[in-house]
Every structure is written in C-alpha cells, then in structure tokens.
Write a structure and sequence with these properties.
heterodimer, A: mainly beta, six-stranded mixed beta sheet, four-stranded antiparallel beta sheet, globular, B: mainly beta, seven-stranded mixed beta sheet, 11 strands
C-alpha cells in the first residue's frame, strides 16, 4: 500500500540555519503531496502542497519540489527562526476513489536562538 | 478553504463510558475523515464518513468501537465507545475541498480516559 517515510527527529538547529527534512513516498499512482505543520498545543495546518511532478510548493519561506524520479518531497527553508519550532508531517493523497490522506511519522524541529 | 468547528476540545472520561465528538463544516463537503493521533505519534485514519451511506473503516478500526454518523453534507459525529485508557488520544476531523485547497483539519478533541 501507499506509504510516506520521513527522517526521524528531533532536528535541532540554530536560528538562521538551513533546514532540510527528507520525505520519500511509495504510491501506486500519481499522488498529491503535502507538508503539514503542528505548532505546540495547536491543530494541524497545511504548509504547502504539490499536485504533479516538478511542481514546487512554497509558503512562509518553506519550499518542497515534487520529484517523481526519486519519489521525494523534501522540505527546505533557507533560514529558520525560533518560531518555526514545530512538528512537520509529510503526507500524500492518491486522489483515487478513497481520497485518503496518508501521513508520515512526523519530524520534530527545534530551533534554538 | 473550509472552516471546521470541532467539539468538545477536550474531555476527561471514565473507562467504560462513551464520548461523542462533533464536527461541523461551514460549507458542503462530500467526504469527511476522522483521524486519531496518539501521544507523540502521527495521524492514523480511522474512517471516511460518507453522507447517505455507512462509513468506510480502515484496518484495525471497527464500527462497534467507533460508530460514525453523517446525517448531511456539513456535519458528522464520531463516538468512542466503551473507552479504555488506550483510547486516550487526540481525535481530529478533516475535509477535502478540492485540489486547490488540500485537506483542512479541525482543532481536535483531546481525550483522556481515566
């Protein structure tokens, strides 16, 4: 079945460091890909998405490119802030008859001042 | 995108009892989804709630334990039945409004079973 694999956390960075969180997926079709963020004590928010190969999703300085050849959707940010500390979830949806959203295990990011 | 109101936001319940969680959406949606997030874990899909038909449950989840209602296109409930401490989790509802909007989540119900 479909699945999403994320790098294990926690990831600890200093403020203004470069961030990469790896995400790879397994899918039978052509899924849409998502990154969600969960700030401490809050709900789940959509950070960015990409619906087809080579699409780049971007939001709040974060970017991720849909790479079909490597089945990857790595999240990057050039300069992280303390306020970016959160748990980040990579997810996919096959958009077949089920429209299910399948999540990776999540990666906790801690940014130190 | 859709706006979801989920309640209660949290509850502490005695083992053996049941809790019903409500999810109200500000617009009509075809599919609504219920997820569970156990402490420190990722989200696991419990079931898909379809209006006018029975919910579709994922492997490991059964209707007797997690009955779901979907009386119309803007509302759904999830009941956690005969609760045990292992049911302590955050329960979230979600809707999908189309490829341009992705999936929107409610703020979640934090359930503690004692």
């Amino acid at each position: 079945g479909d699945s999403v694999t994320q790098m294990e956390g926690p990831v600890t960075l200093s403020e203004e460091a470069f961030l990469t969180i790896n995400c790879t997926y397994t899918a039978t079709g052509y899924p849409s890909l998502f990154w969600y963020v969960q700030y401490p004590g809050e709900g789940l928010q959509l950070l960015l998405k990409a619906t087809k190969a080579d699409d780049k999703g971007s939001n709040k300085g974060f970017e991720a490119t849909y790479r079909k050849e490597t089945t990857s959707f790595h999240l990057e940010k050039g300069s992280v802030q303390v306020s970016d500390s959160a748990v980040y979830f990579c997810a996919l949806s096959e958009r077949d008859s089920s429209y299910k959203l399948i999540f990776g295990s999540g990666t906790r990011l801690l940014v130190r001042p | 995108s859709a706006v979801i109101s989920q309640k209660p936001s949290r509850d502490i319940c005695q083992r053996g009892t049941s809790l019903t969680i409500q999810c109200q959406v500000d617009s009509q949606v075809t599919m609504m989804f219920w997820y569970r997030q156990q402490p420190g874990q990722s989200l696991t899909l419990i079931a898909t709630a379809n209006q006018g038909s029975e919910a579709t449950y994922e492997s490991g989840f059964v209707i007797d334990k997690f009955p779901i209602s979907r009386p119309n296109l803007t509302f759904s409930t999830l009941t956690v039945s005969n609760m045990s401490p292992e049911d302590s989790s955050i329960y979230l509802c979600s809707v999908e409004k189309g490829v341009d909007y992705g999936y929107t989540f409610g703020s979640g119900t934090r359930l503690t079973v004692v």
